[in-house]
Description:
Oligomer: single chain
Distance between the termini: 48 Å
Number of strands: 12
Number of domains: 2
Helix content: 25-40%
Strand order of the largest sheet: 2-8-7-6-5-3-4
Bound molecules: pyridoxal-5'-phosphate
CATH class of the largest domain: Alpha Beta
CATH superfamily of the largest domain: Type I PLP-dependent aspartate aminotransferase-like (Major domain)
Amino acid sequence: MSRYLDPRHASLVPYTPGEQPKDRKFIKLNTNESPFPPSPKVLEAISRQQVESLKLYSDPDARMLTGAIAKHYGLKESQVVAGNGSDEILAFAFLAFGGSKGAVFPEISYGFYPVFAQLLGVSYRAVPLKEDFSIDIEDYLTPGENVVIANPNAPTGLLLGHAEIETILRAHPDDVVLIDEAYVDFGSESAVSLLPRYENLLIVQTFSKSRSLAGGRVGFALGSPALIADLQAIRYSFNPYNLGRLPQLAGAAAMEDEEYFRRCTRRIAATRERVKVALNQLGCVQTDSRANFLFVKLPGVPGAEAQAKLRAKGILVRRFDKPAIADYLRVTVGSDEEMDAFLAAVREIIEEANS
Ligand SMILES: Cc1ncc(COP(=O)(O)O)c(C=O)c1O
């Protein structure tokens, strides 16, 4: 830390992204990327002429992209704002609505929420999950604080039903309820159908997982025109050209290729279910994840050891060093071949540990 850093940030604990290895080839199941390439329509959209146009600024309103998103969800364009990954949208939301009011979110959830809160001076309450890792909605019904819930939650993969989300929304008529749907496309239903009834509902989604564009950095929020206008004001006060030309084109093309999107997400969900069965047969403990990852504990193998042994076998997975979940691994659902290699490695590790 330099002596110039504002003392406000002295205790900031930055978010730690998952490893992006450069030195050797791993089976990479640690950052919930898609095993499939982006839609072929993305490549078609990025022509030589589009590359030459990079000399010009991008559209600050990303109209082609927000138009495609609005059309996909049957919303007005004034109900959509796009960002440089959903991380940026989340930051805008903490900045716009957090302030003195503060936020409540699960203690075990996306690790960026407390980082944004700290960075942006938003007070927060982090609520423990129940023993089975589910969310007790009773903890989220106190009016006067904004609510942030990832649904499905990360890294547990567990889903909250729409009836429960509605109970939270009704308890918070004067607060924002942000539902982070980064993982909703793998067999769950978006809360977008609740938007006409709840002006306090803000839904955040990403192109990073289900649309194979993690490196494109495209995310978005859906909400009432008033909430979206607030986020637009923040965005225009921070970085109006927050999305480059190429990510805008890539995002629009990916959103329009409905068939490819369905094919990829269905395959990932099918692979996830197949791997769950195999892990159960190996005696693993796991959640009923509805995301593009599994959350799993190997029998008789501490989490850190399991992660290190998988790494030695060329497989990267993610682990979080929090007491309740330290023995669990978060394993991205990769291709069928990658998951077969993962299962073979897990079998060996369990046999070794229990022999
Ligand atoms: C719950 C959740 N929300 C948001 C994000 C951010 O995604 P991105 O910034 O790539 O859109 C992630 C990424 O892993 C996530 O797990």
